[in-house]
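A sample follows:
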Amino acid sequence: MNVITDEKIDRYLSITKAATDKLRIAAPERSFGRKMADDFLNMATSYYNDAVHFREKGDLVNAFASVNYAHGWIDCGSRIGLFDAGGDDRLFTLYE
């Protein structure tokens, strides 16, 4: 049986934090893509912060859900080219 533990949440938070720190916005400053990239990053950051908040409260289920949503936004942005993931297919789900 799989159980959400403090260690698992901490590991996922660490991975998502590392991905957020590594990514760079690839879309040009004055483009629609940049607005999307900024929005994707804002969503990822908001969900990450929610995950940290839930983790601190001991609510591991919502922390797990939130960190997975955060990383989903990061992976999506990387996969469609809004973010430059530096070719890192350990932290990101890349298209090729």
Observations:
- The radius of gyration is 14 Å.
- The chain has a mean pLDDT of 94.
- Residues 32-57 form the longest helix (26 residues).
